[in-house]
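ASSEMBLY PREDICTION REQUEST
Request ID: AP-0331
Submitted by: J.K., bench scientist
Number of chains: four
Total residues: 388
Priority: normal
Notes: Please return the full assembly, not individual chains.
Input sequences:
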Amino acid sequence: MTPPRDGRPLRADALRNRAKVLEAAGAVFDARGTTASTEEVARAAGVGIGTVFRHFPTKEALLEAVYVARLRKLADEAEGLASADDPGEAFFAFFTRVVGHAATKNAFSAALMEAGVDVRESTAETGQGLKRALATLLTRAQESAAVRRDIGLPEVMTLLVGASQVAEHVGGDGGVRDRALAVVFDGLRAAPDR
Amino acid sequence: MTPPRDGRPLRADALRNRAKVLEAAGAVFDARGTTASTEEVARAAGVGIGTVFRHFPTKEALLEAVYVARLRKLADEAEGLASADDPGEAFFAFFTRVVGHAATKNAFSAALMEAGVDVRESTAETGQGLKRALATLLTRAQESAAVRRDIGLPEVMTLLVGASQVAEHVGGDGGVRDRALAVVFDGLRAAPDR
DNA sequence: CTAGAATCGGAGTGCTCGCTCCGTTTCGAG
DNA sequence: CTCGAAACGGAGCGAGCACTCCGATTCTAG
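STATUS: Completed
Returned structure:
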């Protein structure tokens, strides 16, 4: 959970509050978007604003923390699928999973985007982990001929981000989303010829 | 250019200023994002803030006006391609064109999104026009077997929005963008079999 | 249990931004 | 040219927000 890199460990209540804030921040940002005020997060967490800012010195830092937690979860899922029986199925399952999350969680794709480019230093490590796991999924899927061989990790990341962004903003019709995703999947399977 | 639906026409200088503001707004929003302040737009247009707000009573109205202008341009392009010799080529050319624009212009995809859902009443008409033109391109492409027949306009709009959003946020590597787009294109061509 | 340190809470601060208001300037009909 | 109407400009208002500061509270080592 990244207990801050300090010398001493945090006090018990501080640790508890930190967790409460992080969870509340996720919920609030999903519901109200990332423009939701820090005060709202504090209220949802049942703590004062001061507490929020002590744990996350900046609103951006708070957002980053939420991002990192989610990226880590994704990375774990990806690693879990890395040794699945059917590499192709695993690859597409992960893709679908990510898009599914994005459909619910606001600013989920933003986290992915940062991971893709590794802008912030704090997301870099987790982002690298996710990319490594995804690379494994991709390579195995390509080796088993489930995915075309003429694309690399950057292209897949790009498609993943794009699909997630769409899912995020297409609240209503999940059917459309699924069919659009099917098109992308067929494209990923397509032979490289032309 | 939508000279406001008033009784009397606008005074000459007023019309000129309106155009200047609209153009400046486009430029500023592209450069700084839609969060750029109205004052910045006014400065870029060389007018006072009051003038901006007289022509566009709300910042949202200003954004909408920019959106509508761009959607109209797209709709015109689509109509121009509607009678091209090769329907498949026309369809994909339009798709590429849209994505290309998105790569340069900030919040371009936002305009597309609104057009897709037709949230605002003011974008509705232009959005309908664009959708109609795109529908023609799609139908003709499908009839000539250049595009799979098991998808409709909503799916294409979704893919278009997604591709545009990606293009918008992948500033750096155009190569990645093109290859990712190629995947989507292959998906659109794919046989509906599976 | 107790003292001192760590943590908390939330009123307050400064800043940005959308928008209004009205004195000043510019246009154009007659 | 004249003069009323239309349009302009930008100081100022109010709201909202990120972030600070410090007295009150809570934890925990000893």
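REVIEWER COMMENTS: The interface with chain A takes residues 113, 148, 151, 154-155, 158-159, 161-163, 165-166, 169-170, 173, 176-177, 179-180, 182-190, 194 of chain B (CB under 8 Å).
SIGN-OFF: pending second reviewer
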